[in-house]
């Protein structure tokens, strides 16, 4: 199969050839019409002159008005012109000397047209050794109906048109050669730049995603292509960095509970113990397994969300009922920490979401609020409508979010200063998972600090019609 470069050159040449051919055809047609028109005008002028002379010579013998040789100045009008005068029946009454014994044709259809007063033009290809162009003009001399026929050779016209064909063909070939050479050079330059970009792009792989394609310096299509590819490389580099960090953090978070689990089992097996100690160890191991199970489930859900596979069909959900049910499930845990969870709900608000994922989002936010709130504190959940969004907000009375941490709270495995210091447990996936779920249903989560003390999270879902 031909390369794109060659196909482009061939298409370019085909278009130019079509345009040149059309222009040459129109030019040749116009030239032919002009040259033949000039010949017709000259023949008609001579015929009308002869008719005028016949009218002036009323009563005399019918003859072609030619000056005897050597008695008049040169007459370019009569040069190579054959003149013949006929009557209504086609009988030849007079002819020019240069016609000799030959006669110009006067068939019956022509006589009928002349009788009707029409001036008739004809092309006669085979009357004599040269093709002729003839005009027949009707004339009335006294009471007689006559016609003057004047013919001229078409050789000069045909030679002019033949020369024009050669000229147009030569110009077309020269133009095609010049345009083809220029087009080939231009496409070679353009595709050479594209090939150079492709070659340099192939050299950029996973190990050197920090490299970028050199910009040609011009603000043209090639420059825009390089800018687009470099932007894509930026996004790929960020994606690979996120993937590497995600893999490293996931490995670390899985390795830590496994190490604790193994250590606890090894310590327990070093010497015989009573049943109570074994039960305590098993319970501790079960807690580690539960934390690992939750971590793996969250990782799997994030992976499915990234791949677009985790999307329960949307339905109309009452956020008031959702908040009540979630608060009821979390009441035992909040009571243990002496945290009061308050629902501030006005009129019923409905959203287009899936109940299960929306409940998981609110559960994660409430668990975070309970973890970071001091004993005796209060967590408030509000339900409201704002424009075309249904809003769930959760605020607490904890320390709030550090300004340095605020832009990163929804990053995967990101843990704030308090969490990193071991003040609260967690692996940093809850908010990332909640944000991914909100995005999957056309919503988002916004994080901020309250004016007083504490953090404020707002979940915005599409409002149900």
TrEMBL record:
Topology class, membrane: Multi-pass membrane protein
Recorded source organism is Massilia horti
Which PROSITE patterns does this chain map to?
Answer: HAMP, HIS_KIN
Q: Which InterPro entries match?
A: HAMP_dom, HATPase_C_sf, HATPase_dom, His_kinase_dom, HisK_dim/P_dom, HisK_dim/P_sf, Sig_transdc_His_kin-like_C, TCS_sensor_his_kinase
Top EC category: transferase
What Gene3D superfamilies has UniProt attached to this entry?
1.10.287.130, 6.10.340.10, Histidine kinase-like ATPase, C-terminal domain (3.30.565.10)
Q: Which domain of life is it from?
A: Bacteria
* Cell compartment(s), UniProt: Cell inner membrane
- SUPFAM superfamilies on file: ATPase domain of HSP90 chaperone/DNA topoisomerase II/histidine kinase, HAMP domain-like, Homodimeric domain of signal transducing histidine kinase
EC numbers on record: 2.7.13.3
Task: Domain (HAMP): give its ranges.
Answer: 188-241
Its predominant location is membrane
- Show the catalytic activity: ATP + protein L-histidine = ADP + protein N-phospho-L-histidine
Alphabetically ordered keywords of this record: Kinase, Membrane, Phosphoprotein, Transferase, Transmembrane, Transmembrane helix, Two-component regulatory system
Identify this protein by name. Answer: histidine kinase
Membrane-spanning segments:
160-182
Q: CDD domains per the record?
A: HAMP, HATPase, HisKA
